[in-house]
Amino acid sequence: MYGHMEDVVFDPKIHLAYDGKVQRITMEELKLPRTSTSSPVAGSLPFKLLSGEGVLAYRKALFDPKVIDQCAVSPRPGTLVLRGAGKISKFVHDFWTHEETMKIISDIVDVPLSIIMKGEIAHTNIQAKGSNLEEMKASLRPEPSLGKVKLTEEEKNYKPLDENSIIPWHHDSYPYVCVLMISETEGMLGGETYIKAGDGEISKVEGPMMGYGCVLQGGEVEHLAARAFGVAERITTITSYRPNVTKTYDSSYISNLRAYSGLGVLYQEWALYRLDKMKEEIEALHHKIQSSGAVDTGEFDIFGQQQTEYLLRSTTQMVPVDFHNRIIAKYVTFEPLPDPIKVEGGLIVDTENLASTEGLKLSRDGHTVLIPQPTDSEADCLNWSTTKKHLILFTIAWDALCADFVGAIGSAPIIFQAAEWQMSFNKANQPNAITVLLLGISGLIWVPMSSYWDRAPVLFWTEVIGFFFTVGTALCNTYETFFAMRVLSAIFLTASQTVSLALLKDIFFFHERARKIGLWAALYTASPYLGPQLGSFVVGKTLDWHNVYWMAAGCVAIQLLLLVLFLDETWYNRTLHSHEQPHRSQTTFGRLGRLTGAWQIQHHKRYFSTVSATYRELLFVILQPHFTLIAILYFLVFMWAVGINVTTGVVFATPASYGGYGYNTIQLGCLYFSPNISRESVCYMNPRRTNVLGLPDRSGRVATFFTEGKYVS
């Protein structure tokens, strides 16, 4: 069965290090009643089980390529689970099944034990490096890692009872478990187990050191496993047991295991294990009747009822495969970028280039791969209705329009402001120049903040604050106050034009984004021209520059209304399993909680990036060579457009006697018809490219798309 795989043969004299020193925890101490399943011992504190040589031999056997290839699954990024290692590795099997190991564990719990079934030997949980299964498998080494991971302030203040634990409060599937630590724990924060007493009191059991194990009657004792931080790896290996005593109730179940086990193998082992248990009970009663020469009919009747009930409990755990798959589909978190669609240099977006589409979700056309792969959760923004998505699209497009609309509108009334404040056109235009500058660089504040506080609250609160400063601009009468209000409004309103693309990326699939960005850009790119154009018409008719900024305030007020009516939080952390996702109420009150940031504050830890991490990511992107080329292109294009916008009022309104053109404000407004008409004309006259990704022609202009920090050409 095992083949020639390992050079080391398990030797208890070499590999075991148990010294008999163990501190037990009793059911009585925990104020828990003893049942027909339980022994007096609830569990133990950590005890020495493997020697240093034993740990190395165990790790070498466990991380043999054959074991990893056949046993490794990844329920979530950063986590590997090995199932069935005892069937592949002779060393692992012999260690757990050796009579000395069995005696040690049985003596600790004060009851003879049997291993549940072969598949439950050495169930191993590994905290591994890597974003996918192959990367995590490649990171495993036989030698224990001594590397440390610097703790963040959030991790230092981690409170497992108040926040997300790695495994929440639960009872185990089987009566007894032995947990063995086979990784270095020096410098590790967390990793302990909390157990709940009968009166609700909670006690902490420190996690075992490397080579140490602990035993728990997990089927009877409710417990919680805390997360571990500060170490490069954390590896625990677990074997499950039942009492090897006839007439002892067996409370085992397998509903927790079906999600990550092959049902054919699991059901076979489960059926054999349950039948073996029944066989033991039948043989014990058979021997009793035969040796006594008589039968107690009452006892025999009770026995028949018990075995019937036991068999029924066994069969109810073996749910049909199709039913199991339907249930699991409601909870599974799909890999956002599955390995089959990854190729060197990009991603496969059409099934024509795939050998198989098994397990992949496709668009309605039946051939476009959905990237990222959505979950089946209604909270996943990729699953929102088309109506909701497009209402959000319009909301953030109007939001982006507001920023440059308000920023560029300042060139319209400078003739009246220069006259009122008795200064040159150039000086009257200085607030507009600084405003444009801050509209650009303030995005470096809001983009990272949208990652560590989230999209919706950043958009909402910057819009609220920006609205008040825009109103302040309309109310002020002095140059100094006007200057301050313009600068402050620019700092906050620019969040809408820099963060909104992140929302588009969140709610639309890869093949949809080019078209949606085009729709978003239709409003956004019109705003630098609409602002001064409409502003010129307003001030030209009313002869009061304040009215220009009242119009700007009205534009922002409309945006606030759209945010309150339609915006929802779009960030969905796809690195977490579905059961770890915080609940998102689908009521209006719940949505407003996410809009204002109350929900984000409540669920911040582990779900969102830290402040330092977001700025490191921003720096990483800025330092990429292709980013520099794109930035230069945008710089040249926007420099020309911004320069035209900001200086139009100065150049064309200056009297002819001073070298200008002497245009009035209405004429200045008419000048802006030119860029608006030409902008749309270029869109329609632009030569149509090849139909990229099957998208409409206008989206085909985009030859290169960016996703998840990588590009696909």
Automatic annotation (TrEMBL):
Pfam families: MFS_1. GO terms for cellular component: membrane. It is found in: Membrane. InterPro entries: MFS, MFS_trans_sf. The chain crosses the membrane at residues 391-412, 433-452, 483-504, 548-567, 618-642. Keywords: Membrane, Transmembrane, Transmembrane helix. It is a multi-pass membrane protein. GO terms for molecular function: transmembrane transporter activity. The keyword Transmembrane helix applies. Its main location: membrane. The keyword Transcription regulation does not apply. PANTHER family: FE2OG DIOXYGENASE DOMAIN-CONTAINING PROTEIN, YALI0B19030P. This is Major facilitator superfamily domain-containing protein.
